[in-house]
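User: quick one - fold this with adenosine-5'-triphosphate bound?
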Amino acid sequence: MKNRSSYLQLIPFILPQSTTITLAFICTLLFTTLWPIQAWLAGEMTEYIGRGDTNSIARLAGLTAVVFIVKGIVQYGQDSLMAKAALTIALNLRKVVYSHLQKLSLNYFEVAKTGDLTYRLTEDIDRIGEVVNQFFHDFVPCILQLIVVLGYMLWLNWQLTMATLVLAPLMAIIIGAFGERLLQYFRRSQNRISNLSALLTEVLGGIRLVQAFAAEDYELSRFAQEAEGNCQAKYQAEKAKAFQIVVVGFLTLMSVVAIFFLGGWQISQNNLTGKEFVSYLAGVALLIDPITHTTNNYNSFKEGQASADKIFELLAIEPSVTEPKNAIALQVVTGKVEYNSVSFAYVPQTPVINNLSLTASPGETIALVGSSGAGKSTLVNLLPRFYNVDQGDILIDGVNIKNVTLKSLRQQIGIVPQETTLFSGTIAQNIAFGKTDLDLQGIEKAAKIANAHQFISELSQGYFTYVGERGVNLSGGQRQRITIARAILLNPPILILDEATSALDSESEDLVQEALERIMQERTVFVIAHRLATVRRADRILVLEKGQIVESGNHQELLNKHGIYASFYARQFQAN
Ligand SMILES: Nc1ncnc2c1ncn2[C@@H]1O[C@H](COP(=O)(O)OP(=O)(O)OP(=O)(O)O)[C@@H](O)[C@H]1O
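Assistant: Sure. Structure tokens for the protein plus adenosine-5'-triphosphate:
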């Protein structure tokens, strides 16, 4: 079962912390050694109290105080060092998972739920950190205490100890059985809560639509269903834990009764003195705490296991788009792009691009037109390798894009998407997206070319104006011009432009159009054209149908042909 190994997979994250863990462990050993000393002191004290030996009582009280202080110091060392190690392990795991997630290919994100992933990177990793902390901080010391105290009890009276341990295997079996049941409930509860998180991300992201369609009640019932499912699973887990406490408590009580019974019998047989029995009972009392902790820790480990399974499942997913080990960095000089007999399908046997070949000369603007679903977006998405081609090759400046690093490939291709996405941060950060050092002069220059400088300057904080997650305080046209400025700053030799279909007011439209025309100069451009002006100005228009180029030429040539483009033009553009 993979869940057995999910904790083992944490070992590479634990090993780098071994120095801190070892130091903490030394503190733990000292701390644990002091436990039986306390039990021994209690036994000695009883004897002196019986004798009324006040001097010895005072000496022992002083010794007990020293033991207490030393115990406090090593306890602090153990707690703080273990916490440091566990938190660092969780931090490193979080970084690794996030970096892995960034490398996964688009086809993974098309099916994954954002909220679910958010939950894994936050709650699940937090839980693993807590479990690691608990393991070293609580579980290991408890086990050591159990071993040391049991050793002391065995040394004191092995017959009595063995007799009381008869119930231990039964206790372990019962705790184990409860643990498996708990794991199921924790899995169910965590699945529900990550579904809930996914639902929230979706609904809050589309709250405008929810309100517009008066779908609040519908969304509330979906929310309630997941929330109730989680509540139910958690309740089941809490009930199982509560029952487990009763059963383990009953068995512990049985053991204590057995100890008294057997202890009394041993004293009557002169095998045990009263003093030894008191020391023995002090030892038994010292056992109860670590037994309770061990049981609780075991339950928490089961909860953590459900999280660890999910995290390592995610880490096991391989990106479908990868680069070869000896990948070279692509240096684009001219920007010539070739598609050679390229085929691609999202779903096997359903080709979306079908044995397509094309060559874009350096600096050429190619407009892609065709009906919805013809494969225009797919065709351009193959260029930055968002997906791998199934057959054929794509070359840039004669170099197969399969053989170059993804970073160098994508740095050469600017994308102005139809959907304008602004990230939380300032306008300057959004224009210089992906760069940590802000070149303000360059940003301003790019914004000027993108017709964005003027409106940005009019904002109270200028380039340092904070735009929300979705840039809600900017108009559609303004957002588009920021994304154009972003591409201009990158200054890529190849540009992919997905023209927005949504209508802007004519002034805004003119500003966007002007910005686009500027950015299209001196680069190889693929534009999914929705505007007549773009189509007309393109050096070449490719008409796509079912993933194939069915017509090619400039606007006038294609009109003269009276073919598909001419009728498409009549339908699509003549109304403009
Ligand atoms: N991620 C995906 N997974 C599965 N099928 C997809 C995916 N993206 C697109 N498709 C399918 O591939 C075909 C081509 O889609 P594509 O988006 O490339 O067409 P398009 O010409 O750009 O259309 P539009 O003009 O409507 O944007 C369509 O049938 C579409 O349903």
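One thing worth noting: The CA atoms of residues 210 and 216 lie 6 Å apart.
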